[in-house]
Amino acid sequence: MNLEYDAMAKRVAALERLLQVSIQLTTETKLSNLLKTVVHEGRVLLEADGATLYLVEPDGLRFHVSENETLKKQLGAKEWRRLSAPYVVPMTSESMVGHVALTGECMNVENVYSMPEDNAHLVAGAQAFDKLTGYTTQSLLTVPLQVAEGAVVGVLQLINSQNGSFSAADEPVAQGLAATASAAITKAMLTEQIKDARQETIIRLARAAEFRDKETSAHIQRMSHISAILARRMGLSEKFCEDLLVAAPMHDVGKIGIPDSILQKPGKLNAEEWEIMKTHAAIGGRILAGSNDPILQLSAEVALAHHEKWDGSGYPEGLSGENIPLSGRIVALADVFDALCSKRCYKEAMTLDEVTSIIQAGRGAHFQPEVVDRLFEDLDEILELYELFKNDDPDEFKILTDLAMRRATHAR
Amino acid sequence: MNLEYDAMAKRVAALERLLQVSIQLTTETKLSNLLKTVVHEGRVLLEADGATLYLVEPDGLRFHVSENETLKKQLGAKEWRRLSAPYVVPMTSESMVGHVALTGECMNVENVYSMPEDNAHLVAGAQAFDKLTGYTTQSLLTVPLQVAEGAVVGVLQLINSQNGSFSAADEPVAQGLAATASAAITKAMLTEQIKDARQETIIRLARAAEFRDKETSAHIQRMSHISAILARRMGLSEKFCEDLLVAAPMHDVGKIGIPDSILQKPGKLNAEEWEIMKTHAAIGGRILAGSNDPILQLSAEVALAHHEKWDGSGYPEGLSGENIPLSGRIVALADVFDALCSKRCYKEAMTLDEVTSIIQAGRGAHFQPEVVDRLFEDLDEILELYELFKNDDPDEFKILTDLAMRRATHAR
Description:
The structure is a homodimer.
Chain A: H1 2-26, H2 31-45, E1 48-57, E2 60-68, H3 69-75, H4 77-83, E3 88-89, H5 96-103, E4 107-109, H6 124-133, E5 140-148, E6 151-161, H7 170-212, H8 217-233, H9 238-247, H10 260-263, H11 271-288, H12 294-305, H13 326-341, H14 352-361, H15 369-377, H16 379-388, H17 399-411
Antiparallel strand pairs in A: 1-2, 1-6, 2-3, 4-5, 5-6
């Protein structure tokens, strides 16, 4: 009776601990921490000498995290880390973890050296590991990390029960831990997929716009990077700066809706053509409007506001001062600065002096004074973008000559 | 000793059951089943008379699922269903569930009728419920459904412990169940967000294309619906038919890259212009290529293949027969059928007889014979789309006259 009572008390303690771990893991947002906790708690909860976690990846089951108390003591932490470096097991029934991943069923083996002949292949991996390390694997409890009927994202393997072998009662504990891990891994994977899906819209629209307006691809890259640099210098959050880098390339997407005769006219636009050209801001806003995605919301804001001017003389709405969204004020300067620096089919590139005097003349009129000051605070960081994103045309930028001269002066 | 042993045995049983429920819930993909299970198992596990689950929604905490054994017996299932219809509690500290959602902390109340004065507002809701139903609420255990530090997606409330009040040991059990529920709810929400994010790309590209080619919006809707109908009649999976409905609108997105002078030319294109026009299939393929999203992959396939012909005389690759992707063979017919039926700036609409004879002439040459046969198998379902997606122009479709005549004939 007393023994039974002790066993019961131990069981309660294990289940209580599993409960605490599950609650804690639900709010863990970093995948690597989560995997480490699952392996460590699995080993402790199931009184195992070792534990290993594999995740399903395109090329097979990748070994991610492992603990082995005996080997860590025998070999030292450094040598154990070397031996437990990630490797990939093929997703086939030739190995135990592959078999568990494919069938979605738990496998409890009492002794890997007394397996029936026809299942010998399932323990070949453990035996090879023993040969390599001098370890003696005996019992193994292997459970799938399952997220839905037939959908396995990984496998948790517990090695050498300190009680000789794993009991039937150990199985649900390991499965419970695996269930918590599966849910958290799925969350991390879905979050990654959302990020990818959101970038798709920007990627496809940019590709579509390039077919209309081929010369602007490098311009878009430079002005987006300048926008992000300016935002950073204005003390805005890193998240905003990163979002602006992705959103700014959409500022001229509305040009998709402008006729070729205007968009590609080599000479100056007449008054009527100019009015049509100006509609690109509103068209861009309409193409991008109404999304739930924060980056698309920001890009809609930028597309609509990047031709507004600080003194209210811009378009499409004639907003002034801080009524213009901050993103629009920043992108406006980055866009004009790069256009002035670049050679276009209708104009030559300017020298840095010429660009500077035009931008300074627009300080407080076209541009917010603070944004202009942030631009000139450190020109070298900006000019280096022109080395990074340039074409083959030696006349493309005159400012690169200025950068070279500035460097020569600094070097002296 | 015996009593303690019994209590211990009961605790083990509860924890074992919680473990089983957690494992089971991890693979439950339907949110409504999941919520029901959480409420029911919560009530059973914690030996409560009632349980209620609230989810955080934009307008507050929405009451989703509720069980109450006493009231269900007293009032009957029907009246209880009426009383437990969904309602919304504001997300403020004025109510207990609001308070728990805002603080993210568990709340265990022994008796709602002996609360200290300054917390009286927290139990006003329970007291109002009692007045309405004749029920007597006593103990309440309220736990948050938390997905990350500070991120609460719902609240689980357990009502009237059968043991007088809820113990401290009950709290982690309720929290454990709430943790499993949170993970599953998050999974469902993220899956929804991925779907939204993936649709964004199609929505934005379609809007951009409309600015280039304004007359085709209704054409796109009709030909996409015709494509989905044909796919269904060909016995393809419902998933494929639904994906094709979303992907088909992208078939002409490559026209964004065709110059206005060709795209909007009122007369016939000359040979050189025609070669340029034909590049729209490859351009569309390139705009959409290389995505991980199955719908974008399908739309890239459709954009590239919708001008291939069954006999190999199409473009851009001159594929023939079953080398043309099935999606392309279906969309090819839907696209031509709708174009023939419609009035365009360069041509009148045709009668149904004229359209039929042109399509039948292309059977086995331009079009796969089986797809043509599926189209003519039931024309009425197709013609009804022309009533649904039409403009104000009375000359837009001659085939609507045919539909009216067919109906008059059937009516007789």
